Amino acid sequence: MDIFTRIAERRIIEAMENGEFDNLEGMGKPINLENETWIPEDLRMVYRILKNAGCIPPEIELRNEVINMSALINTIDDNKERLKKIRELNFKILRLNIIRRRPFNLDDFPEYEGKVVDKFTGGL
Question: How far separated are the first and last CA of the chain, in Å rounded?
Answer without folding.
Answer: 19
